[in-house]
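Q: I'm writing a short explainer about Deoxycytidylate deaminase for a general audience and would like to include a description of its predicted shape. Could you first generate the structure from this sequence?
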Amino acid sequence: MPGRGGARHPTRDPSPAARRPGPLPPSGRAAARPSADFLPGARRAAAAAAAGRLGRALACRPSMSEVPCRKRDDYLEWPEYFMAVAFLSAQRSKDPNSQVGACIVNAENKIVGIGYNGMPNGCSDDLLPWRRTAENILDTKYPYVCHAELNAIMNKNSADVKGCTMYVALFPCNECAKLIIQAGIKEVIFMSDKYHDSNETTAARLLFEMAGVSFRKFTPKCSQIVIDFDSINSRPSQKLQ
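A: Of course. Here's the predicted structure. Afterward I'll give you a sentence or two in plain language.
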């Protein structure tokens, strides 16, 4: 006798075909973008497209004769570069008689300080004198001007300049020699020693020798370095840099 819920028929075993799962609904990336393993035609088309792109790229590439195969030989070496920086910074000097620049370099060939001769910060270089001689020394530049070596040390961009090398256009005076020694600079490379026999320069050499600071004259490989602002606009013969 059927129960309250009505007659219940026994469940029939499904046929093998019925047990076979149907296609899964699309889910995730795999369903939305079938693998190329199941699409040999698409795979061949993609390979053909890639080959076409490669062929076009090779066709547009310059021949090896047009591409530079080695670096240029006329680049600035480190010593010339650093001394050139010292000379370039000297162009900032307002001194009408002598423009001197200095460049401090560490052991990794990194510039850590640059300076040129000029009046102290906050002191008008229009009001202070620039003359070299006068009846009263207070009417000359010497009591007021800061030398390039001093400014390079004060303008340092590192914690200290110990063990560094200073490139300077003019051999330092005795006052700058004191600063160089106290700063821990171990080598001075200068371009000119035109005041070699002066008392200030003689005292500077003595101080350097006693403190173990080496110094030597710079011998450039070229007499001048030209800065041409228009050179960046020139077009090289090679198509690739």
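A: For your explainer, you could say: The CA atoms of residues 41 and 47 lie 10 Å apart.
Q: Perfect, that's easy to follow.
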